[in-house]
Write a structure and sequence with these properties.
mainly alpha; Four Helix Bundle (Hemerythrin (Met), subunit A); 5 helices; about 75% helix
């Protein structure tokens, strides 16, 4: 991404996500996903790489959902600070947990990459952690929909 496209994206993010809590939740998830992709670059075992790429694709799809949740949450409860709005506290908690879980997913993938020799069922621990991330994102969507009385943000 070039300088001007980075500036444009930053402005779009400011407009859609604000500069507070929803932006931080979104950015944390994005950083975790970037880290996961960085770990992938060093995987030499082709079978393990293929498994980890499948997980990466699922997590990348979830990042679109996280952005949608954060944009809608910012629309409903604008935030330029770190105060969690009561009605959306559950949504924020789920997003925060998803970001943390994504970081541990990247960590698990890094441990596999650094392992000496084959690791039986190695990618299963990464997959389990990724499934937890996806569940937390789904829970955030559900909680956001419940606060609106509809499912406009579910996806």
């Amino acid at each position: 991404m070039g300088f001007f496209s980075t500036v444009r994206q930053g402005r779009k993010d400011d407009a859609e996500l604000g500069k507070g809590l929803w932006r931080r939740a979104h950015d944390r998830f994005t950083r975790g996903l970037d880290r996961y992709h960085q770990v992938l670059e060093g995987v030499e075992d082709e079978a393990l790489y293929a498994e980890l790429v499948d997980v990466a694709n699922e997590l990348s799809a979830a990042s679109v959902r996280v952005r949608r949740i954060c944009v809608e949450a910012q629309r409903r409860a604008p935030s330029d600070g770190m105060n969690v709005p009561g009605a959306l506290a559950g949504v924020h908690r789920c997003l925060s947990t998803a970001g943390n879980s994504l970081a541990t997913t990247a960590e698990a993938a890094a441990m596999l990459r650094l392992a000496v020799g084959p690791v039986p069922n190695g990618a299963s621990s990464v997959r389990r952690r990724a499934e937890s991330v996806l569940e937390q994102v789904s829970d955030a969507e559900r909680r956001l929909a419940e606060t609106a009385g509809d499912d406009r943000v579910s996806g």
